Structure formats: C-alpha cells, structure tokens
Amino acid sequence: MDRDERIARESVVAAARALDAQGLNRGTSGNVSVRFRDGLLITPSGLPTDRTGPDDVVRMGLDGTHPPDQKPSSEWRFHRDILASRPEFGAVVHAHPVYCTAFAICGQAIPAVHYMIAAFGGSSVRCAPYAPYGTAELSDLALAALIDRNVCLLANHGMIAAGASLEKALWLAIELETLCQQYAVARQIGTPIILSDDEIGTTVERFRGYGLNAVQPTAPETA
C-alpha cells in the first residue's frame, strides 16, 4: 500500500466517523466510498465505525472484484454503479439519518420548501421506490432517482449523497438532513410554501460558483 492509498483509506474512515459524529448514522449502519484509481475504496461490512481502521477499508474494482479475505459494505453495488456511471462524482455517502429516513419511510419526495434544495441540483429530492438492500434493483432505482441530482432518498431505507469529493458528499448529506428536519417541522406549524421551478433554477445557477461547488471548500453563502 503506497502513501496515496493510505491517505485515501484514512479519508474513508474519517468520513464514516464524521457521519456518526454528526448524528447521521449509528452502529454499523451506513457506508462511505471514494473513487480511487481504476476502482473505489469502501467501508467494510458489519464493522462498527469506531473499530474500523484504514486496513479494514476494502479496495474494489469497478467490476465488483475485491480481496477474498475482505467483505465490502452490503451496499457496494450502488456505490460502484454511481461512481461508474457518474464521472463527476468522486465519493458516495449512504446513511440513515432520522428525518431523511422518516420521509423515506413515508415514500415522500422533498419539494422546494427552501432555496437550499438547489444545492442538490434541482427543485426536488426524489425518493426511489423500495427494493431490498444490496440488490441490483435498488442500485438501478437509486441511479434513476439521482438523474440530474446529487442526493436522493431510498424508500423505507435512508439516503444517498454523492459529490466530487468526500467533503462535498458529507456536506450534502448534512444539508439534506437539515432540509428534511426543517420540512418536517414546517408541516407541523402549517402549510409549507413551495418555491417555483424558475426560482430554484436561478438559484441552481447561482450556486455553481458558491461554496463546495467552487474552488474553495466552504459552504455556499446563505441568508
């Protein structure tokens, strides 16, 4: 293992632990991957984050091959398929945060209730229909929900966020959970007002030069 691979493995472990620290995951749920050379590095199956080290991270080829003495996350398939089909993405985060998962359990998409939805690429966050975890069917449904988007919900399951880097993917995951929480609270208060597609389209364009979409890895300017 060379220095570059060691650094990449450490970044996967750090990202997985950040999900726990942010309250987006608990125990062995959720998984993280990063594009690496001609394949990817992904968190292992069934190992608690606090016990996962760089050597436990599994190196996979885009053909699904991996060392026989290691077992990748059960969700390796959609990680592999997203990275294989979306060259603009360099990392994928999958988690089960409370508010995202609550909407996913209800099979509900998230509409444009806040302009920050533009950070996800459009005027909605889609919810992919249910399919058993780890299956090719789930991967296909996730890919469809991610068309022109960088996040989606998975019915009765959780969420996916993909970005050019692990930092970007983690930021998107946190922003999505925040938006879902805001939407849930707003529905308790009254009837949320949905922003128009034109408004969100304008904001999408403005966001292209802000925050983690730009050169410097900082969050976009908000008001």
Automatic annotation (TrEMBL):
It comes from Methylobacterium oryzae. This is Class II aldolase. Residues 10-184 form the Class II aldolase/adducin N-terminal domain. Keywords: Lyase, Metal-binding. SUPFAM superfamilies: AraD/HMP-PK domain-like. Pfam families: Aldolase_II.
